[in-house]
Amino acid sequence: MSNSATLVKSEYLESVIEKTKQKNAHESEFIQAMEEVLSTLAPVIAKHEEEYKATGLLERLVEPERIVSFRVPWLDDKGQVQVNRGFRVQFNGAIGPYKGGLRFHPTVNQSIMKFLSFEQIFKNALTGLPMGGGKGGSDFDPKGKSDNEIMKFCQSFMTELQKHIGQDIDVPAGDIGVGGREIGYLFGQYRKIRNSYEAGVLTGKGLEYGGSLARTEATGYGLLYFTREMLKAHNIELKGKTAIISGSGNVAIYAAEKAMAYGIKVLAMSDSTGCIYDKNGINLDAIKEIKEVKRGRIKDYLNYVPTAEYTENGANVPPVYRIKADIVLPCATQNDINLETAKVIVTNGAVAVAEGANMPSTTEAINYFLEKGILFAPGKAANAGGVATSGLEMVQNSMRYYWSFEEVDKKLDGIMTNIFKSCQEAAKEYGVEGNYVAGANIAAFRKVAKAMRAQGII
């Protein structure tokens, strides 16, 4: 697997990368995402360098169209005023309304919001649906909060956010810390303030008020559809393989469910506290009850399967990645796999790594996987099933109609298959066959660049 796309030189491209790094020196996550994308685009830029330079296309691409930052005051159950910070980054709307999730987590800051929304531009472009790139959230931590506190926070958050969104402007969804409960509170506040029922303004809604069947499963299922196509292209069967999955949230759970349906034995899952290993294969019903019903910790799995093994996090290499498996599915959070972890994964004989989370592998880790011939599916392509199905939810809302689970799942499978083909064909066209990181970036960039060029310098 060649990484030769990076050998093509473009002075314009390199100058934009350097200027962007200098301008955003304090935003490490955004710089990482920006550099990962742009560094693979040299062969495309080389063909249109003068035109892109004359129109400042790359400079505009790396600068958000709009960043909204606001305070979010709310009353906790003790009557104390709490204040959090809210964000919405509307990065690029060239191919459609801004689209991307809301993340409620203590680590949220402007850099993370910019990295996520920048990635979203290309992820959304790959789906083939008319959606631009955006992302938002808050440093609010829903863990340990009562339903009443979460409702009050969501209402305060939406009181400001509603000024900046709309079904034809910007359509948020869920992300880490924002599930069906939070979307419900957010939508209720939006509806009350706007005095209108714009079902398409948020996705990930409950089925009772405009949500789509298969949305809950979409990111995890889509990850396996992409992985299936990637392995098929290299004549590798899914059935009989083993897998490890970092995380145990929505993406991880439904990736595990679809993996098991394909005959893969899932050996391990994790959360922020540690990892559970079950040599007989993970009991997914137990994981669902722990995480979706009881909102507990992964260690509670031992109450269901006493013969399983639990290891706390703390080492440089998270324990879930020390377990030998054919397929590695990182579904937790960004920069989960560094170079040291990547070396362990390769030594353990993995044949494929497919990202269910956003940017869970560092640049050094990705380059190492490619260098060692590991099949690598980048998150912007492999986990696009969630936003693809959000797009399908928007379509259903516009029609005021519902598709069956099977109809949505079939459309999702088709979208993920087409995403893989786009990555495969772009990589082959530019001489980096098998490098799906470069393929995904090139395929998505070409679509966004054409739209930006057509619309003038804005």
Termini, distance in Å? 38 Å
Uncertain runs with pLDDT below 50, 5 residues or more? 1-7
| Strand line-up in the sheet with most strands | 9-8-7-6-10-11-12
Strand fraction equals 15-25%
The main sheet comes to: 7 strands, mixed
The radius of gyration over CA amounts to 21 Å
Derived structural class: alpha/beta
C-alpha geometry: globular
The count of helical stretches stands at: 16
Q: What share of the residues lie within helices?
A: 40-55%
Q: What is the H/E order?
A: HHHHEEEHEHEHHEHEEHEEHEHEHHHH
Q: State mean pLDDT (0 to 100 scale).
A: 96
Number of strands: 12
Task: Please provide a written account of the structure.
With 458 residues, this protein is α/β, with parallel strands linked by helices. Helices cover 46% and strands 15% of the residues. The protein is built from 16 helices and twelve strands. A seven-stranded mixed sheet has the order 9-8-7-6-10-11-12, with helices on both faces. Helix 5 (110-127) links the parallel strand 3 and strand 4. The longest helix has 25 residues, at 405-429.
